[in-house]
Amino acid sequence: MNPLLPRARPVRLVTTLLSEGWRDIDELVLGSALPRRSVEELLAEFGDDLEHRGDSVRLREGSAARAAELAGGQAEPPADLLDRIRSHIEGVPAPLPALDHVQATPETVLRRAGWLDEEYDLRQARLLFLGDHDLTSLAVRALRPDARLTVVDVDDRILEYIDDLSDGSIRTVHTDLRFGLPLAVAGSADVVFSDPPYTQAGMALFAARGIECLERPKEGRLLLAYGYSERHPTLGRQVQRELLSLGLTFEAIIPDFNRYTGAQAVGSAADLYVCQPTARAGGKRARKGNAEQAIYTRGPRSVEADQSPRRLHDALTAIAAEGGRNVEQRDPDWTRPRAVPEGVAVAVDLSGDPGPWLPRLLLAVNADRVAALVPNNHPDLTDERAQAALVELLRPKYRLRLLRSTPDNSHAVVVAEAAPATAAEPGVHAVWTRAHARLGNVWPRADADIADLRLIDLPRHRIAEVRRLLEPS
């Protein structure tokens, strides 16, 4: 394996120098900007393809092809790639203000793909995107059909869109980074790219999760887009201090690398931070995160939003307690299995739900009754079609009551009553009530690309697909 994985550009420089004639170590170090030890390790990879003369080496005649394979040449972009990117962006689901979506320009997305291919060997390096509303993964896929790509996002619409346009060749995984990473994603990548929300907390959280995604952090790279106004340099300093405190060092900061249609407060531009984790990267700070963390600039859990008043919690508890049940208050984190005593109802404040929390919370909690407080304009409640889809998705496990404008005009309560096992499809019920188990363990026929994921880690359209596949013929 290439000892410089995932870096490719210095390997190509050394290969070019060796192809041109005799070189000593000093020349290779100077020409590649690699440390001497790294050059020595790379030469060892060439093995018998090198011939030696004193302290100098060169590629043997006829070894150019094998050397090129080790170096991995850059891909030639398709002539219509920019047009394809434009088309993808024109069809992308509308930006969600609550997730701080601001669209990168097609030229930026093309520049990102080309730069990634220039810097890293995408034939070998596993590239993971933490959030991808800009669709950079699709541009990389078009440039490098053999690249191993994963997209992790909180927005189910984006995951479905990428799944459709890539014909399933890009692995898509759902999570909200505030709650952590799925185990199948942690430690799975060589390079991580992200364009996080530009708040101090948002940058810190996405960077911490990015470190967790790297299999070998010291050898991997974390690439972050970040922009701040030149009128407020203190904001930039605060974010940079956060990144440094996580154990990251800045290998490069490329000014104005990213351009956007919007984000005029930061000049519609953002730098590209190329970060290398140090030995102390991550640690306990990388595992922190919760639903109350204000990482976005807008929406119900933004840095300026008020929390749900006590009267809403009291009303929610009263609904959950109907019939004299005891009520257990839960936080919105659906990622951990937690037992619920028999006969106890669960009340959960999901007023900060940007959209995907509700169905996953109901899949994750096994209780006789669950009452969830959500915004009245929640995507699953906005019209009859959305409501019917939610009811159908949860039918093997719960019967739902959707109480709009309750307890006030800004909120709604979703009440889920456990469905009798005899009334549900047995195969679906078994999987739907074990949402934290690896799918391969509870469903032996699960496809290989999802067998190591949990039901709650799947994009929503794939959860619905699993449901259809599990239904009796």
From TrEMBL:
One of its GO terms (biological process) is methylation. Pfam families: BpsA_C. Keywords: Methyltransferase, Transferase. InterPro entries: BpsA_C, DNA_methylase_N6_adenine_CS, SAM-dependent_MTases_sf. Residues 80-264 form the N(4)-bis(aminopropyl)spermidine synthase C-terminal domain. SUPFAM superfamilies: S-adenosyl-L-methionine-dependent methyltransferases (SSF53335). Gene3D superfamilies: Vaccinia Virus protein VP39 (3.40.50.150). GO terms for molecular function: methyltransferase activity; nucleic acid binding. This is Putative methyltransferase. It comes from Saccharomonospora marina XMU15. The lineage of its organism: Bacteria, Bacillati, Actinomycetota, Actinomycetes, Pseudonocardiales.
